[in-house]
Design a protein that fits this description.
By secondary structure, the chain is α+β, with helices and mostly antiparallel strands. It has 7 helices and 8 strands; from the N terminus they run αααβαββαββααβββ. Helices cover 44% and strands 23% of the residues. Pfam families: HATPase_c (PF02518), His_kinase (PF06580).
Length: 218
């Protein structure tokens, strides 16, 4: 492919990233309103509106600041947590060497949201009513690559790769393709890896999705 063709291909992949969760969130908010939770519902709508504006802005760009990507991710997580029966806990851990450079570190827009969505809606699905769900995002640097992992404490992967792609709002193949394009096809390692975490006896401890993104700082 020529560089122009790759650019057009990348733009097409980006345009698919408007998260479908917004429809589900609106339906949940409508249900909340019918139950009389008006003030809470207004709060949710305000946050959803802010999130949507950020999403619309970000998907018009080839790359955005890591700080903005994390802001979108945090808003999305907190909205989902509030709509998630008894909720869940979450933490975002950022490498000390990156904390001062989040505004200058570039990543593809909404590269994390589909993986976070999978972790919440599928990984933590069985914990909706006990409030024991845990979500963790870690951002580190390894050999000129950003290494970002999303980990949940659910039951691990219970679907085939094909089923996982089909059940995702955005195909995992989309994420992998975008990473390949910005990486120039140079990496020998997997750029997107989704795996079940297990203890020494083989019992599933959760699911971990890890991305390798070229470290681009401007």
């Amino acid at each position: 492919m020529s560089s122009n063709e790759l650019s057009l291909r990348y733009d097409l992949l980006n345009s698919q990233m408007n998260p479908h969760f917004i429809n589900n969130a609106i339906q949940s908010i409508c249900n909340s309103i019918t139950k009389g939770n008006v003030n809470q519902s207004i709060n949710w709508l305000n946050r959803l509106s802010h999130l949507y504006r950020l999403v619309q802005k970000s998907t018009k760009c080839k790359m955005i600041d890591l700080q903005e990507e994390l802001e979108i991710s945090t808003l999305y997580i907190e909205l989902q947590r509030d709509l998630f029966d008894k909720g869940f806990s979450y933490v975002i851990k950022i490498d000390e060497s990156l904390k001062e450079d989040l505004e200058h570190t570039k990543v593809p827009p909404l590269i994390l949201q589909p993986l976070i969505e999978n972790a919440i809606l599928h990984g933590l699905k069985r914990m909706k009513q006990n409030g024991k769900g845990e979500l963790q995002i870690t951002v580190t640097v390894e050999k000129e690559m950003l290494y970002i992992c999303i980990t949940d404490n659910g039951n691990g992967i219970t679907k085939t790769e094909k089923e996982l792609n089909e059940s995702s709002g955005i195909s995992l193949e989309n994420i992998n393709e975008r990473l390949k394009i910005i990486n120039g096809g140079k990496s020998e390692k997997k750029l997107l890896e989704v795996r079940t975490l297990k203890n020494d006896t083989g019992i599933a401890l959760g699911t971990q999705s890890c991305l390798r993104i070229p470290l681009i700082q401007i």
